[in-house]
Structure formats: C-alpha cells, structure tokens
Design brief:
- The chain has 303 residues and is α+β, with helices and mostly antiparallel strands.
- It has a single domain, classed as Creatinase/methionine aminopeptidase superfamily (Creatine Amidinohydrolase).
- 32% of the residues lie in helices and 28% in strands.
- It has a five-stranded antiparallel β-sheet. It has a four-stranded antiparallel β-sheet with strand order 2-12-10-11. Strands 1-3-4 form a three-stranded antiparallel β-sheet.
- Strand 14 and strand 15 (297-300) form a beta hairpin.
- Helix 1 (2-20) runs antiparallel to helix 2 (29-42), helix 3 (107-130) packs antiparallel against helix 4 (137-150) and helix 5 crosses helix 6 (254-266).
- The longest helix is centred in the middle third of the chain and has 24 residues, at 107-130.
Length: 303
C-alpha cells in the first residue's frame, strides 16, 4: 500500500513539474489538460481525476470540455491540479503559476498575485509542519488561517482538503482552511491531501453552471436504451473515481450526451462537480500536497 502511494506521488510530482513548464501566454487549456492526463498514463499510473486547470477567479473543478477554446493569457493565475493512482492508491497535488509574457497587469497587480502564490505556499508548509498523529484537523486549519490572514489575505472557507483511501478520492476526513472546531483527529497511517486556497476576496466559492467532471453513484432504472448504455459504460470504466465528460465523447456523440448526462444527474445516478469561482470575483491561488501521517510528523508523497 505505502509503495503504491509513493509511486503515485512520484509520478504526480514529475508530471506536475513538466506541465508547469508548459504554462505560457497563448497555451490552449485543453493542450495542458491532455498533456497531463496522457503523461500520467505513460508513466504507468491511472488518472485519479480529470486534470483541473482553473484560471484567476475560477477556483476549482474546471477541466476542458470537448473542443475547449479557452486560452491561457499572460498574467493569468493558473491553478494546475492533478492526480494519479497506482492500484487505487492516490496522489493529489496542485500548484499555481502566474503566466509570463503578454500581460496587461500593472506592477501592483503582479506583486499582489506573486504574494497570493507565496501565501498558499507558506500556508501549506505551515499545515504540513503541524501534521502528526493525534492532532485535531481543525488545528491544521488554524495554522493555514493564521499564515494567510497574517499576510493580508483570506482563506477559502468552503473548500477543504480531504483524506484519501484506496479508490476513494474524498474519504472520511475534511481538512479545513480555517479553525472551525470540526471533529476529527489524525491517526498514524492516514493519507491526506492538504490544499490551502488563498484570495483577496470574500473567501467563499459559488457554483457556476458548468459541469465537466462527474462521479458514478449507482445504477438506476431508465426507459431509454441509450441512457442505459451510457450509464453502463460509465460504471464499467469509471466505477470509483471522477471522470470527464470529454472522456465519453470517443464513444458517444456530444449533442446527445448533454441531455443524457442531465438525466443521469437528475436521477442521482451520477454526481456533478460544478465548476467553482470565488464569490466576489477575486483571483485565487492554491497549493496542494499529499501526505501520509506518521507518529511524529508526516511523509510528503508528492514533493
């Protein structure tokens, strides 16, 4: 088990570092997403969830739809979030890059964005330093909050890190980004994805009506054979981990899929991960590592 977590972590770290170097003015988001996903597979792992590329005020859960025309621009804050699995054991990591070249930002805006990135980096370091068996999860959130607010920013309060288990991306524990007194104590052997989100906005995210990531929940009865076929395909290929709408288009037509996916969501056969944006429209930075809790600290698998 530990060996699988470590191998997945090394793959995520390698691909993250390579993909970060590709982020530049004019890069199509779909090219970045496809590079990450294909490299994870080339390295011998499975994709733990669709690669997320969330830009500026878009905070999480954006992956390219088919034929995505969105382009990264100079000055953008690009949050790259990726995951790999070996034998179902997951590594999850994220980094924020401010795109070089071709930007219209003034010096104050550039400095602020660099400070946002620095704050998410520092908050993650503080959180990891506090991790050990016996620590309350809320105390981890308190360390994140302290660093971020001392630097003049706000944590995103309605997004959390999460514990990981085999074939389970979001298992029992949530790791908050502020001290909220929620129950939960870390135990030796727990695996956590810790991910501070930092903004100069109000510090909350809201859904926007874009869904490109889903998760299978259960088989439901449907009258239409096509709907049954799509759901059986999803269950057969993505029974445990999130998947992308884009991944289905090799097998099914986009136009017909749109209405079918809505039907599957409405019937609670699949779960939609709505794209999230910062409520006030402010830009957001994110940094994430996966760690294994030890008696007197933790081991970072995605360093």
């Amino acid at each position: 088990m530990i060996e699988s977590y470590e191998k997945a972590g090394k793959i995520v770290s390698k691909v993250r570092n390579e993909a970060s170097g590709l982020i530049k003015d004019g890069l199509a988001i779909i090219k970045l997403v496809e590079f990450v996903e294909s490299e994870i597979i080339k390295e011998g792992a499975g994709i733990a969830f669709p690669c997320n590329v969330s830009v500026n005020e878009i905070t999480a859960h954006y992956t390219s739809p088919p034929n995505d025309e969105n382009i990264i621009k100079g000055g953008d804050l690009v949050k790259l979030d990726l995951g790999a699995e070996i034998n179902g054991y997951i590594a999850d990591s994220a980094i924020t890059i401010m795109t070089k070249g071709g930007n219209d930002l003034n010096d104050d805006e550039i400095n602020k964005n660099e400070d946002l990135i620095g704050a998410s980096d520092a908050a993650l370091e503080a959180a990891i330093s506090a991790v050990k068996a016996g620590v309350e999860v809320s105390k981890i959130g308190g360390e994140v909050e302290k660093v971020i607010t001392n630097l003049g920013f706000n944590p995103i309060r309605n997004l959390t890190g999460h514990s990981l288990e085999q074939w389970n991306l979001h298992s029992g524990l949530s790791i908050p980004n502020f001290e909220d007194n929620r129950p939960g104590i870390l135990e030796e052997g727990d695996v956590l994805a810790i991910e501070p989100f930092v903004t100069d906005g109000v510090g909350y995210v809201v859904d926007i009506p874009k869904v490109n990531i889903f998760k299978f929940l259960k088989i439901r009865p449907f009258r239409l054979p096509y709907t049954k076929k799509v759901l059986n395909h999803i269950k057969g290929n993505y029974p445990y981990l999130p998947f992308s709408f884009r991944w289905l288009t090799d097998e099914f037509s986009v136009n017909r899929l749109n209405s079918t996916m809505k039907e599957l969501v409405d019937s609670m056969a699949i779960y939609p991960y709505y794209t999230l944006r910062e409520k006030s429209g402010a830009w957001v930075s994110q940094k994430e590592h996966t760690v294994i809790v030890e008696k007197e600290g933790c081991y970072i698998t995605t360093k």
